[in-house]
Structure formats: C-alpha cells, structure tokens
Task: inverse folding
C-alpha cells in the first residue's frame, strides 16, 4: 500500500477516485508471537443449526469478508443471497455453497440494479431476515489532496448505497415481519485513519446509522450493529506490499497479527444469531486491540 498508512481498517483500498467493492481472499500469515485461535486454520464456534431458517443478503459477497460471511452463514444453517459487481467470484462462491446460495451481479449504487436483485431474492427465498452491508471501498490520499469528487464517490458507495439498500430491505421484509438484523462494516481505529479520512468519515456514519436503527426500528424487532474491523488480511493488501507490509502493520496491533476474514464472519454470524439477540445500536470492534492502542506510531513531523 503506498504512503504506508498505519493501523488501517479493512484491507480493501484503491488509488482511483472511484472506490470499488471489497475484493481479495484470506492469506495465511504467521505474525509475531500471538498464535491463531486454532492451529492449522480457523474453526467456527457456532453450531451448524445456529442460523437455521435465516435468509441473509451479503453485499460484496464474492471475495474477502463478504465471501467468508456467506460461507459462515451457510455452514450455520442459513440461506444466502450474495451480490457484487464482478460475476466471476460470485459464481465461484455460489458453486461452492450449493443450492442455499444465489449470486447475482449488482452495483448497490444503482437503484435499478438493486431493485432487480431484491426481486430475484424474493422469487427464490420469499423473505430476508439479515442484511450484511459489506460492500465498500476507498482510496489512499492525504486529506489535503482528496478531491471533493473522490469524497463524494466514497460516500455514495459506503453511505448512500447502504442507506438505500437498508431502507428497501426493511420496508419489504423486516418491518412487515417484525424481525431483522443489519450489520454494517466500519473501521478501526475509529477516530480516523491517516490518508483515508474520507472513508473514516463514511464508516462513522454507518456507526450512527446502526444506532439510529436501534432508536427507531427496535419497535419492529429489528436490530443493527456496526462491526469495526482493524487490520484484516482478506487478500486486498497484496497490491500494496504483500506479506512484508502486513507484517510491518501487524507490529502496531497489540495482538501482533492481522485478523482473518473468517474471524470477522464468525462475529457477524454470532450477532445475527439468537446469541446476539440483545445486542443492537452499538459498534463491535474486531481489531486485536488496535482501537484501544490508537495509531501506535509517532505523529508526522511538523512542516517548516
């Protein structure tokens, strides 16, 4: 990653002024002195029927955290509808997960595409009780060099599109059925990330949206949480220095390693289950202690 921002949130960055949805796959690392939860790979703690009867929409479901979340939901008994802009990774996930998964290309910024996607979900499953608003994007740029056009592009995807999709899913299924759970994806550190202030602003808005849903839609049986992710190695860092750079960033994390997409997915799945039934309107941080530690580095030198 150019300009080497520290303590970065989601590993899904691009240099262009138009952000793109999350991409990449989990890459195994052996970082620092803190072992993974289970040697040899991650093992979910959820029962295979923990989400039985649940139908979930997962945006950005072809890669990274979205793909891991779709896998975890199906493993725990749910059915899933995934979408994203690129059909190839979506098709791969659908083939892997079988008849409890449908996958359709959809740019969530485009209302017509969203409408067609939701119609297809309704035709296949008839209902939706969980929305995982995972699709998002950003680019690397100092605050003073971030153009208004770039800021608007990031907010159009991360805030406007998620607002629209959440309203549509709630109005169509969750409010009439008096049940539902919405998970947004935020950033850690939560106080802002250098060279990604534009996206930190957008992710903060999602935290507020989750709280607002708790305030106004709890009466409909709808819960919402923002899951703020720290350094998550979902494959998106490969174009920014690869494993070497991830290891360097991991030294800024108290647990001295990057998290995995599977760990984030298991957290979301638990929150969507009955075990998370009293959790709403808050932010759950999955970051190895990054938010508590701060940026973990010296501030930049003063300009003369």
Result:
């Amino acid at each position: 990653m150019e300009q080497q921002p520290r303590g970065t949130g989601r590993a899904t960055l691009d240099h262009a002024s138009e952000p793109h949805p999350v991409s990449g796959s989990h890459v195994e690392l052996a970082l620092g002195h803190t072992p993974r939860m289970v040697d040899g790979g991650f093992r979910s703690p959820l029962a295979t029927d923990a989400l039985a009867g649940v139908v979930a929409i997962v945006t950005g479901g072809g890669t990274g955290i979205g793909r891991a979340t779709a896998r975890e939901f199906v493993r725990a008994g749910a059915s899933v509808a995934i979408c994203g802009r690129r059909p190839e990774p979506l098709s791969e996930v659908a083939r892997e997960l079988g008849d409890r998964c449908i996958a359709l290309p959809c740019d969530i910024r485009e209302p017509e595409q969203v409408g067609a996607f939701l119609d297809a979900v309704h035709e296949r499953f008839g209902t939706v009780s969980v929305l995982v608003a995972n699709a998002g994007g950003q680019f690397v740029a100092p605050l003073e060099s971030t153009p208004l056009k770039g800021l608007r592009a990031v907010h159009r995807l991360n805030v406007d599109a998620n607002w629209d999709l959440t309203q549509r899913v709630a109005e169509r299924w969750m409010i009439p059925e008096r049940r539902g759970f919405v998970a947004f994806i935020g950033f850690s550190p939560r106080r802002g990330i250098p060279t990604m202030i534009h996206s930190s602003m957008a992710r903060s808005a999602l935290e507020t949206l989750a709280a607002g849903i708790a305030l106004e839609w709890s009466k409909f049986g709808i819960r919402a949480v923002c899951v703020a992710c720290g350094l998550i190695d979902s494959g998106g860092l490969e174009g920014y220095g690869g494993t070497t750079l991830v290891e360097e960033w991991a030294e800024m994390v108290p647990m001295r390693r990057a998290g995995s997409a599977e760990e984030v997915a298991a957290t979301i799945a638990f929150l969507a289950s009955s075990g998370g039934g009293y959790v709403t309107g808050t932010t759950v941080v999955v970051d190895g202690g990054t938010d508590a530690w701060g940026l973990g580095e010296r501030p930049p030198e003063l300009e003369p």
Residues 13-29+45-288 form a domain with the Rossmann fold fold (CATH 3.40.50.720). Residues 1-18, 20-39 have pLDDT under 50 and may be disordered.
